């Protein structure tokens, strides 16, 4: 009897799953055929491709369609191909798509669960508004001399590495960690100066293995059921200690430092409508730490790789930077911000290697739109929406010859001619990356000092063509990026 019941239950489950996989077909929305239980994520589950790569492939395959219906395991998800619909999702109809599709519980991960990236509704709105003053251009200008000093130390550090093999992601990580230590906590990170500095150790221990975030991407529901966190539990008390001690030291010694820790600690004193506790202060300082170094070091290492691969770009960039140094004696904040070729190089790297492959939103209220051929399509509340950043950035329709590195695409009138909402390295609209200004600033200043002082070429240890780690939701290169540096005498 029990056996019959089990067979019956499996049969019913199988029937409903089959029915579930008809979801997009029934609505006339094209997409790849799903496989039982894994949907379209099969290659992701066996670690052959990251979810972002799978979405990018579908983006390219269904190039006649504005949207593509796919299945993330058993969940129907909608991939948005059309830039006008990207605008609709991120800006025009933001109230239907205001949440990111990640679930983190405060009990399991008290730090990441407070990050604006995963907050929802009114709580997100309030916290976002509270943290925004920490990233104004005035704040960036104030931080700039610290970033310059760390960039000088970066040059000294690379000089000591010249005859060894240099993996630049690690070098960039040590640089961005020092920046974050200073700009968020007012502390010296010593990550370039000491092999085993406390901050480097903290960074190594910070994130849970990439598998947790991977799970959040392929199946947020399963990740929630398994109580997966993003930041290791053991790290929370270390951050609480660091923040408490630093604030105590400042108070006892009457030190007011205009950094991020000051901004978030003031929120505790001044917030009246939203209770801001010690754990909130710690969580936001730790948020700056986590987001400040990883995405930026990925991007910076890819910029170094691209300029090492493209000597004509490298020479042109060096000319621009040297001229700026020579005309001013140093490299003032405003001058750095006004260098068009440097800006083009950074943007073109963000296009080819966006640190985040794709963005995951969720539709919170039914949304009906009219497609270009006049059909009405209703996106139901609860449907995850994928913005295929990597696919859009590599579409020859918007970026001719998309695999070729051309900083000029982002300069002068070329930039004006780019199709809007096809360049999304930081997202768009009210949820656009909060730390964009800081991320780009620290990369630009570090690059300027490197390019002035060294000639770069790609070392044979770099695996070409670049492949991305399938378990990492960010574009982490398999095998690292290895660069040879040759000192230029100034
Ligand atoms: C160059 C490096 C960076 C890249 C490429 C990057 C990219 C992104 C992307 C794609 C998003 C998601 C946007 C969306 O949901 O539509 C995001 C969100 C966010 N980023 Fe960044 N980021 C970078 C650096 C930083 C830095 C340095 C910080 C802080 C110190 C930061 C803080 C945040 C925060 C708080 C959010 C959540 C915003 C919200 O949902 O309201 N990011 N970032």
Q: Would you count the extended β strands for me?
A: 10
> Which CATH architecture would you pick?
Orthogonal Bundle
Overall helicity: 40-55%
CATH topology: Cytochrome p450
Structural class designation:
alpha+beta
- Find the CATH superfamily: Cytochrome P450
Largest sheet, in brief, is:
5 strands, mixed
N- and C-termini, Cα separation = 86 Å
Subcellular location: Endoplasmic reticulum membrane; Microsome membrane
Protein name: Putative cytochrome P450 6a13-like Protein
Family: Belongs to the cytochrome P450 family.
Membrane topology: Peripheral membrane protein
Q: Can you walk through the features of this model?
A:
With 490 residues, the protein is of the alpha+beta class. The chain has a single domain, classed as Cytochrome p450, CATH 1.10.630. It is 52% helix and 9% strand. The chain has 20 helices and 10 strands. The protein binds protoporphyrin IX containing FE. It is a peripheral membrane protein.
């Amino acid at each position: 009897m029990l056996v019959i019941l089990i067979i019956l239950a499996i049969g019913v489950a199988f029937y409903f799953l089959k029915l579930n996989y008809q979801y997009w077909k029934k609505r006339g929305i094209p997409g790849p055929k799903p496989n039982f239980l894994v949907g379209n994520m099969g290659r992701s589950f066996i670690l052959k491709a990251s979810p972002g790569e799978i979405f990018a492939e579908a983006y390219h395959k269904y190039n006649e369609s504005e949207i593509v219906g796919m299945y993330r395991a058993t969940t129907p998800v909608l991939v948005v191909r059309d830039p006008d619909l990207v605008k609709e999702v991120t800006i025009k109809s933001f109230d239907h798509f205001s949440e990111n599709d990640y679930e983190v519980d405060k009990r399991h991960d008290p730090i990441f669960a407070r990050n604006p990236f995963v907050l929802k509704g009114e709580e997100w709105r309030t916290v976002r508004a509270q943290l925004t003053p920490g990233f104004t251009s005035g704040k960036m200008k104030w931080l700039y001399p610290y970033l310059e000093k760390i960039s000088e130390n970066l040059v000294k550090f690379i000089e000591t590495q010249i005859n060894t093999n240099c993996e630049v992601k690690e070098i960039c990580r040590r640089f961005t960690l020092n920046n974050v230590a200073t700009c968020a906590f007012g502390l010296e990170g010593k990550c370039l100066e000491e092999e085993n500095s406390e901050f480097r150790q903290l960074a190594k221990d910070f994130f849970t293995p990439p598998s947790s975030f991977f799970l959040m991407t392929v199946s947020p529901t399963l990740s929630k059921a398994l109580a997966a966190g993003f930041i290791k539990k053991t790290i929370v008390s270390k951050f609480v200690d660091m923040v408490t001690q630093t604030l105590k030291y400042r108070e006892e010694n009457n030190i007011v430092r205009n950094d991020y820790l000051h901004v978030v600690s003031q929120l505790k004193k001044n917030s009246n409508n939203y209770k801001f506790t010690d754990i909130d202060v710690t969580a936001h300082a730790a948020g700056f730490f986590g987001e400040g170094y990883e995405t930026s070091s990925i991007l910076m290492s890819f910029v170094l790789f691209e300029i090492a691969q493209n000597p004509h770009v490298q020479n042109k960039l060096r000319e621009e930077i040297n001229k700026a140094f020579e005309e001013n004696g140093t490299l003032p904040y405003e001058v750095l911000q006004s260098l068009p070729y440097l800006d083009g190089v950074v943007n073109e790297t963000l296009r080819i290697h966006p640190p985040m492959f794709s963005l995951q939103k969720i539709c919170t209220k039914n949304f009906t739109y009219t497609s270009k051929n006049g059909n009405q399509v209703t996106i139901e509340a609860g449907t995850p929406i994928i913005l295929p950043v990597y696919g859009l950035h590599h579409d020859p329709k918007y970026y001719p010859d998309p695999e070729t590195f051309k900083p000029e695409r982002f300069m002068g009138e070329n930039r004006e001619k780019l199709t809007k909402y096809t360049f999304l390295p930081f997202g768009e609209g009210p949820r656009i990356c909060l730390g964009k200004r800081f991320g780009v600033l620290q990369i630009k200043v570090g690059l300027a000092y490197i390019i002035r002082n060294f000639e770069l070429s790609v070392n044979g240890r770099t695996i070409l063509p670049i492949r991305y780690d399938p378990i990492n939701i960010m574009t982490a290169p398999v095998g690292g990026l290895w660069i040879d540096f040759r000192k230029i005498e100034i």
